[in-house]
Design goal:
about 350 residues, alpha/beta, Enolase-like, domain 1, TIM Barrel, 8-stranded parallel sheet, 3-stranded antiparallel sheet, 13 strands, globular, binds magnesium ion
């Protein structure tokens, strides 16, 4: 098999404001794998908090001898690559995504169908409204007509003003993400009650990721589910957080791809955890990969392509607020003509 690497920078439509920082672009690395005359694509997204740069991903791939492997032997390939990368999850996710695309194309099936996922069970997809001034919030809400669910980034000093501004323009249900930005468990409980009254369905990561005890305290009292994002990265973390949160936010870049995400979903269900299928700043490639298994989740938050201006692929299709899983074999990605990538 052959592997080609393409570093790329996703430009964000709006400066991405979350509790703690703001940025205008996100580095990614696309990979293209070819074997048996079939090519497939994967993506590693590298937001600062994952701690990897593009060069880290390039060196992990460039120092692995892919010519020894065939993609048909995907289990051995992924397992050897995982050890080689020292558990570099974005690199592993990129390879896992491309392999899923490749194997599905080889079997002439859409990836979701090959994985036994029922596309009818897809939930509404959430569109993120980052922390911003009221005029921009109004514009963002008005741009979200294709969505029936909004995600609000909270954890700054004017959370109530922000949510109230959104409520002036829409009564669509919301989900809230605090990115560890709330100060105390009592503040968080008061916020959860306030949000519940405004038709908010859940809150993500209200408090510091290491403060599991406060999250457990809050989960017991909150009228809305408390979902672990920063506190939950990969399969092994389920054991540590399962008694402290109501559910988990699964992202392919945190856990290493579609295969690991499916293992997490099955274990999370056995432990009574709710599931949010989320994403980093990603193009259609990594988002469409997550969408293949999103019908297994309670909530879906895959809005990456809608937050960037230079997506190399066509956006995915939304119908009645949900991502449409198409019938094309593989991940169903279509490169835009005007952006040459490979
Ligand atoms: Mg989050």
């Amino acid at each position: 098999m052959e592997v080609k690497l393409i570093p790329y920078t996703l430009k964000l439509k709006y400066p991405f404001g979350i509790s703690g920082n703001t940025r205008t672009e996100t580095p990614v690395v696309f990979i293209k794998i070819t074997d048996n005359n079939i090519s497939a694509i994967g993506e590693a997204s590298l937001p600062p908090y994952l701690g990897y740069k593009q060069n880290d991903i390039l060196s992990v791939f460039n120092s692995f001898n892919f010519s020894k492997y065939s993609i048909s032997d995907d289990k051995r390939l992924l397992s050897d690559f995982k050890k080689h990368s020292i558990h570099c999850m974005p690199a592993l996710a990129a390879l896992d995504i491309a392999i899923n695309d490749w194997v599905s194309k080889k079997n002439n099936l859409p990836c979701w169908r090959r994985l036994g996922v029922n596309s009818d069970l897809m939930s509404a997809n959430a569109m993120t409204i980052g922390i911003d001034v009221p005029q921009v919030i109004e514009k963002k809400v008005k741009e979200s007509t294709a969505f029936s669910l909004l995600k609000v980034k909270i954890g700054s000093s004017n959370d109530k003003e922000l949510v109230s501004t959104i409520r002036k323009y829409t009564d669509k249900p919301i989900i809230a993400d605090a990115n560890q930005g709330l100060k105390t468990r009592e503040d968080a409980l008061e916020m959860c009650k306030w949000l519940f009254d405004l038709n908010c369905l859940l809150i993500e990561q209200p408090l510091n990721k290491i403060d599991l005890a406060s999250h457990a305290w809050l989960s017991e009292r909150s009228p809305i589910p408390v979902i672990a994002d920063e506190s939950f990265q990969k399969f092994e973390d389920i054991e540590h957080i399962k008694n402290h949160f109501s559910g988990i936010n699964i992202k392919l870049m945190k856990c290493g791809g579609i295969g690991p995400a499916m293992d997490i979903i099955s274990s999370a269900r056995n432990n009574g955890l709710k599931i949010l299928m989320g994403c980093m700043n990603e193009s259609t490639c990594a988002n469409m990969a997550a969408a293949q298994i999103a019908p297994l989740a309670d909530w879906v938050d895959l809005d990456g392509p809608f937050l960037i201006t230079n997506n190399p692929f066509d956006d995915f299709i939304m119908k009645e607020g949900k991502i449409v899983l198409n019938q094309t074999s593989g991940l169903g990605l279509v490169l835009k003509n005007e952006i040459s990538l490979f």
